[in-house]
Amino acid sequence: MKLDVWERIQDMFQRIESQLAEEVRKSSGLGVNEFRTLRTLIRQPKREMRMQELAEFLHLTQSSTTRLVERLEKRGFVYRDSCPSDGRGKYCVLTDEGHRYINKAIPALEATLESVLDSFFAAEDARSAVRELSELSLT
Questions:
Q1: Cα angle vertex 89, ends 85, 94, to 5°?
Q2: Residue 117: phi, psi to the nearest 5?
Q3: For the segment 34-92, what is each residue's pLDDT rounded down to a tens digit?
């Protein structure tokens, strides 16, 4: 029973993530992790984050994070900078262009997310799985 509910929740999440990824790509030209990177950087006090911390946040390997940041660099949204206290450490820094871009993209993407979630959770099987998950958390 619990395993069945968990599998349904995983399936729902994967379907939501897939739909959202497609909508993010269409509306902003970004992948979900690229969008998450920019959104994360905009919320940092200095609009920067160590590459290693970014990789951990995104649940990506160092090399995947490097490739992602390279794609964002090519668009002028971020740049990499050396860590002053550790020459080996690198920061990913949001540019003014990246800041403007993500600020324009956020409202459209929030509307997209709301639409995807509304349509998804209108289905009875989704509501049922959420109820079952809630019941599991109480046991």
A1: 100
A2: -65, -40
A3: 999 999 999 999 999 999 999 999 999 999 999 999 999 999 999 999 877 766 779 99
Architecture of the 2-138 domain: Orthogonal Bundle (1.10)
Which segments within the chain are labelled E, that is strand?
48-50, 78-83, 86-94
| Consecutive H or E run containing 116 | helix 96-121
The span from the CA of 8 to the CA of 134, in Å, is 13
Which sequence spans correspond to the domains of the chain? 2-138
Tokens of 13: 């999440």
CA distance readout (Å), 135 to 24, 103, 112, 128:
33, 39, 29, 11
Tell me the helices (H) and strands (E) count for the chain, helix number first. 6, 3
Query: Residue 123 gets which letter from DSSP?
Result: S
